[in-house]
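Input/output pair, single chain:
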Amino acid sequence: MFRERGPPVQPFRGTRAAQRRDGEGDLAQRIRYGRTVTSGTPGIPPPPPPGLRRRVSRWWRSRDALSRLHRWLLLRAVPLLVVFLVLFALNGALIGWTDAYNVLIGIDSPGDVSPQWSAWPLSIAGWAAVPALVGGAVGYAVTDQIQAHRTRELAEILDELRRHSTSPANSDGG
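Output:
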């Protein structure tokens, strides 16, 4: 029922920080942390961290690596959502939260509340922008799922349909 213990396990050598401190880290870590590579050779100091402009530039260039849905959500939906939330918060502060919700959903007319200048854009956003955002997200998600399951390319399917449509009709009249 009980097994006898085997030979002792190798002793735990500690964390990576302890290995670096003891000089057991790899060459890149020793260079990164300013340790000497060989005796007498000074370590190379680390480069300065990138500035805000460089980080934003790198983020902007990396957006093409995202899928279509994620790119659309990040670059189109988030800005529209921020504008929509600001509009809703403005109307909530001006006409009250219940009235702002009722105007947004379409229960109340924007002409029934005061001030109307802020209620009309909220009503239009609730009538057009919110369904457009939801529809866009669902459309991209469905398109991604269809493309993931497609075994043949669309161009190949269209070429086949063109060949069949231009081929002579059956002579048996069928």
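The chain has a mean pLDDT of 78. The first helix runs from residue 16 to 21.
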